[in-house]
Automatic annotation (TrEMBL):
The protein's enzyme class: hydrolase
EC number in record: 3.1.1.29
Protein name, UniProt field: peptidyl-tRNA hydrolase
Reaction it catalyzes: an N-acyl-L-alpha-aminoacyl-tRNA + H2O = an N-acyl-L-amino acid + a tRNA + H(+)
Keywords: Hydrolase
Species this chain originates from: Streptantibioticus ferralitis
Length: 239
């Protein structure tokens, strides 16, 4: 459950049967125009920032208009689904309540959670497949002062799947941080980087106590696969 504090993590729900609760999903739509698709890494970073922007929005706190939907989503399985849109599809998607977050080349719109089988028709008709994106230029090493979401180098994921996974990792980092660090991160516009480490570095990261995403295995990869480690400076300092 969420607290009245918009910067607070949900209460401990280890005793909650998440599968028995009503299931919701957090929809994200990435704009992919035919002639000007976004760079893959920028799309992954923008997706993570969109999730963080939604979690910190005042409408998710107290009696905000999205607070009940957020609570329902967090009581069940934390699912995110990324769909793609272009042209008129994107314009229709933008007409629905939500938040659009822009990156250098990417635009991602995040919406309040919807029932698993109750998507708005404007979003339900959008495709999940077809989110293959590329990076025209190498990203280079991340700034050591930035939070970094590290992708498992041993897994192959579509851009849409990876966007959902970086969103999961950003959310785990948000929950793990103290309120002061959350506020500072929000103040930076949720600066972060997404990178793929060398296998040896991944093994070290995955064996640490940093937040680690274990995928439920609904699509593309096996259940329990470790997909992303969230490496935030404030969490590194606490190790």
């Amino acid at each position: 459950m969420t607290s009245a504090d918009p910067f607070a993590a949900p209460a401990d729900s280890a005793a909650v049967d998440r599968d028995a609760a009503p299931q919701f999903v957090l929809p994200l739509v990435v704009r992919i125009e035919r002639d000007t698709p976004p760079a893959r890494t920028d799309a992954l970073e923008t997706s993570a920032r969109a999730v963080l922007t939604f979690l910190s929005d005042p409408r998710t706190a107290d009696d905000g208009e999205w607070a009940e939907l957020l609570r329902g989503w967090e009581d069940g399985r934390i699912r995110k689904v990324v769909r793609r849109a272009r042209g008129a599809e994107w314009r229709r998607a933008e007409s629905l309540p939500g938040i659009t977050v822009a990156g250098r080349s990417a635009m991602v719109r995040v919406y309040p959670p919807v029932p698993l089988d109750g998507w708005p028709k404007e979003l339900a008709k959008l495709q999940v497949s077809g989110t293959e994106l590329a990076d025209p230029d190498p990203s280079g090493p991340p700034d050591p002062s930035l939070p970094v979401l590290w992708l498992n180098p041993g897994l192959e994921m579509s851009a849409g799947k990876a966007m959902a996974q970086t969103g999961h990792a950003a959310q785990l980092a948000w929950w793990a941080l103290p309120a002061s660090a959350r506020k500072a991160w929000q103040g930076s516009g949720f600066d972060l980087a997404v990178r793929t480490p060398e296998p040896a570095h991944w093994a070290e990261l995955a064996g640490s106590d940093l937040p680690l995403v274990h995928d439920a295995g609904f699509t593309e990869i096996a259940p329990g696969s470790c997909t992303v480690v969230a490496d935030h400076p404030a969490l590194r300092a606490a190790r």
